Amino acid sequence: MFFLRSSQLIQHRYVHSRGLGASPANPGAAPPRLPFSRVTQEVLAFFRTLLPGRTITDPDLLKSSNVDWLKTVEGNSEVLLRPKTTEEVSQILRHCSERNLAVCPQGGNTGLVGGSVPVFDEIILSTSLMNQVITFDNISGILTCQAGCVLENLSNYLEERDFIMPLDLGAKGSCHIGGNVSTNAGGLRLLRYGSLRGTVLGLEVVLADGRILKCLATLRKDNTGYDLKQLFIGSEGTLGVITAVSILCPRKPKAVNVAFLGCSSFQQLLETFQYCRGMLGEILSAFEFLDASCMSLLEKHLKLTNPITESPFYIVIETAGSNATHDEEKLHQFLEEVMTSSLVTDGTVATEATKIKALWSLRERVTEALTHEGYTYKYDISLPVEKIYDLVQDMRGHLGDMAKNVVGYGHVGDGNLHLNITSPSKDPALLAAIEPYVYEWTSEWKGSISAEHGLGLKKRNYIYYSKPSEAVALMGSIKAMLDPKGILNPYKTLPDNIH
Amino acid sequence: MHRSSEVKHVASYLNTRGCECFGQPCESHCPVLTDRTIHVQLKTFIKIRVKPDRTGVVTDGVKHSMNPFCEIAVEEAIKLKEKKLVKEVVAVSCGPQQVQETIRTALAMGADRGIHVEVSGKDYETLGPLQVSKIFAALAKKEQADLIILGKQAIDDDCNQTGQMIAALLDWPQGTFASEMTLEADKMKVVREVDGGLETIKIKLPAVVTADLRLNTPRYATLPNIMKAKKKKIANVKPADLGVDVCSRLEVLKVDEPPQRQAGVKVETVDDLVGKLKEAGRV
């Protein structure tokens, strides 16, 4: 059922086509607008009183909050709210709930699945002014802060105190910790410190009707009843708005080394990983890979230089520990072993900060290099580690000349592939060739169609490729219980047929 | 190209005292470098702290690494060797035990052997260009070096004096701020970066050259070379063995951080802006 409201022409820019509504051919496109209320002058007056100077209605200012980072999805919100306290968030949601107004919570707006921007005229609830650190205990390493703290700022704060955040990702300069938690962000350090599901100790959440759930415990161990925070972690703003986080932070390592290695086959890369695990053990903090296509894009668009000889695969290994001599000895033994056994054909090591940063940028800037190639189709897939590159090669064969680039890179240590396909401009025929083929392939190997990016708008209808229907039905029940009017981030995360 | 006499390079580099700034505007946490023109590359990684007694900066626990300009010098030396214009590259550093790591990096880049001039403790804290240049002059004579290449200045003290002093002590010609150097028979053609542009000079060997930013891009030390470097020799020498007195003639009176930059104030409306400007007496 597709229709356009004649009273208001609403321009939507969808992921895959200009059509309205999701269909079997376009599962990523938005469904028709649900019957939420619209923002009236009365509503605006309420917000202006509650948040003076922080109720934004200027279309120019709203523009950047209506479009996602990839510039592929655009909403039409007319109101952006910037609360400073949990109490203000509570009042906003209570008001919206009473008046059946839809809300889109927004952190740094760096998500890649269209989950952080409105689809229609949802009110944007921004955490950008909720950026205070509440407490930090330098014995336990437990940090509590508001949800709008930028990840990089938290890292800098902690580094001065000899600690670090347990997660790190390319978007660190812009993303908010609240957004990281609501999307259960993964990142480059997951291999060493685990996921947010382990490191987040407590949350303060405002529910759809404005009730404040104060579960901001700062305890390492607390087995008293059901662990509610796990519901909100990864719920992408659809079950509640996270307003504060308490998180366990590791000590800053005294010694960090980065090795950049070249391998001539994926099989050898995997064997190198085995050696890595065995010989580096507890000091291993990251194991990432990129392929030769990624390297040529980095060289072509960002003018970065390949520090070693050209190889089909490149590995970035990071070690982090408390004793430089101990770590270097282990690292050099490992490197000698993989060099002499020819698992690795070439490599270089960095211990110095600027060199480390330069080597890491070869992995971190691939996403940026891809943007220069036209339109990118991004797939974030979890697979059994040995199958990871098979998917890339299979896609290359399957797409042939239709795609300009088919590249693979990612957190191979976590079994997470970032498959990216580019074409000079959006190409529906190419998209039809990629999807659902890529999801079926993933499903066949019992993988996840979204390892860390979440479902958002773009992937909500693909959930069945990785979760059974009973599970999805239960998710729907939980959503109905916590947000009966469905005002929190509608059209996201759960599939359309759940309603 | 065949050379009848053995040509050796003596490339030197100094350990930085902890500042990683190189390339872009440096922010206020580099206290010893207030009026600087050097810039921070991406962001500073080490917070520089002034010692409570204001006699210097805290260097304990701060990672030391090869001075970026000296790295460029090492690279140039190795390039000359690869072109078979010189026979041997010797890397030298003055300082405590840690400098051996920096010498190893030079060896991994391709230098043939290293010399570690041991200076530690109080002597190291007060070690400056005059003492280092005396050490180098003595070593150059001992090793019968034909060419000395070093970085134009260290990024922790920004002195830009060592190269020039070595040349003066040895009475050798010097080509400083080199962005290009070409060996032509027994003369070195050096293109120098000066305020007015580029100056090309020809100097007779033996000579001293100091490297500037655009001379080259240092290579990464690759694994096979890192492994080989472990077997290369690093000789140990004391300044006294070279007849050099490392006593300093300078006394640091005090070291202060630059004044903190005041944070800007954000206002929500034009009225607020006018109000704040009036408050500050600007309107």
Ordered list of secondary-structure elements with their pairings:
The complex is a heterodimer of chains A (about 500) and B (about 280).
Chain A: H1 41-50, E1 55-56, H2 59-66, E2 80-81, H3 86-98, E3 103-106, E4 123-126, E5 133-137, E6 142-146, H4 151-160, H5 177-182, H6 190-193, H7 196-199, E7 200-206, E8 212-215, H8 229-232, E9 241-248, E10 255-263, H9 266-280, E11 284-291, H10 292-302, E12 313-321, H11 324-340, E13 346-350, H12 353-364, H13 366-371, E14 375-382, H14 388-399, E15 405-411, E16 416-423, H15 428-434, H16 437-444, H17 469-482
Parallel strand pairs in A: 2-4, 3-4
Antiparallel strand pairs in A: 1-2, 5-6, 6-9, 7-8, 7-9, 10-12, 10-13, 11-12, 11-15, 14-16, 15-16
Chain B: E1 8-12, H1 68-82, E2 88-95, H2 99-109, E3 113-118, H3 122-125, H4 129-143, E4 147-151, H5 162-170, E5 174-184, E6 187-194, E7 197-204, E8 207-211, H6 223-229, E9 234-237, H7 270-279
Parallel strand pairs in B: 1-2, 1-4, 2-3, 3-9, 4-8, 5-8
Antiparallel strand pairs in B: 5-6, 6-7
Main location (chain B): mitochondrion
GO molecular function (chain B): electron transfer activity
Keywords (chain B): Electron transport, Mitochondrion, Transport
